């Protein structure tokens, strides 16, 4: 229990920014027509900030389930590497325990755990505590933002119609590490997205940009794996 509480305490500073970030998602979800219940279920079932923003952007009366599922899958592929980096912490745990712990892993709690691991303080309890703390603040932010968004008659007056673009621009700035490693994959991703948006209906441009950019990075040897400091910077962006 002490390690769990330590994880919660360590996650509090970043959780405050998660609260603000989540409120933006809540406002956008309300404007897209998601109910409070639907948003709460999404928070629990998905619990992945960037993927949830993508889902909200793709939300419409007739849900593009295949496009949405593939887009979320691509956005969350990085958690395969995150899980591999945490393997030593899960020694002796059952499959169900591992699934629960990994479901609550976020970029923020992972970065915090990696820092604790270098100090010799990492544990499953610490990781779990950080994840629970981030989840509670994320849920409070999204649900509070939803209530606020539903009460605003003209969101464009507060530039809320630009909120999704602003969020992704902030994430991009946080993840940029220099032209040498990132420029070519980013150009490929942008070109693929623009071309797909012009040629295909729906939201396939999101998937096309993600896949093409990732393949470009792999084939050129660019975009080295994120360090925990990189992840913390992106999370705070």
TrEMBL record:
Which InterPro entries does its entry note? Brnchd-chn_aa_trnsp_permease (IPR011606)
Where on the tree of life does the source sit, at the highest rank?
Bacteria
Q: Which family does it belong to?
A: Belongs to the AzlC family.
Membrane spanning residue stretches:
12-30, 36-56, 68-90, 124-145, 157-177, 183-200
* Subcellular localization: Cell membrane
One GO BP annotation is:
L-valine transmembrane transport
Q: How does it sit in the membrane?
A: Multi-pass membrane protein
Biological source species: Desulfoluna spongiiphila
Query: Cross-referenced Pfam families, in alphabetical order?
Result: AzlC
This protein is called what?
A: 4-azaleucine resistance probable transporter AzlC
Q: Which UniProt keywords apply?
A: Cell membrane, Membrane, Transmembrane, Transmembrane helix, Transport
User: What's any one GO cellular component for it?
Assistant: plasma membrane
């Amino acid at each position: 229990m002490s390690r769990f509480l330590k994880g919660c305490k360590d996650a509090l500073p970043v959780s405050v920014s998660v609260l603000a970030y989540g409120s933006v998602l809540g406002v956008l979800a309300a404007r897209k027509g998601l109910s409070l219940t639907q948003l709460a279920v999404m928070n629990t079932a998905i619990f992945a900030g960037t993927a949830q923003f993508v889902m909200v952007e793709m939300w419409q009366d007739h849900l593009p389930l295949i496009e949405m599922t593939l887009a979320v899958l691509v956005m969350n592929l990085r958690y395969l590497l995150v899980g591999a980096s945490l393997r030593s912490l899960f020694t002796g745990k059952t499959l169900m325990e591992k699934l629960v712990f990994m479901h609550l892993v976020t970029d923020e709690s992972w970065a915090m755990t990696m820092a604790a691991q270098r100090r010799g303080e990492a544990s499953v309890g610490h990781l779990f505590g950080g994840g629970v703390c981030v989840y509670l603040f994320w849920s409070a932010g999204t649900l509070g933002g939803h209530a606020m968004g539903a009460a605003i008659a003209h969101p464009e007056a507060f530039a809320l119609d630009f909120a999704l673009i602003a969020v992704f621009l902030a994430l991009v700035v946080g993840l940029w590490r220099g032209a040498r490693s990132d420029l070519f994959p980013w150009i490929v991703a942008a070109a693929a997205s623009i071309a797909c948006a012009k040629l295909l209906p729906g939201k396939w441009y999101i998937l096309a940009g993600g896949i093409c950019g990732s393949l470009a990075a792999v084939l050129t040897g660019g975009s080295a794996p994120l360090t925990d400091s990189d992840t913390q910077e992106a999370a705070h962006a």
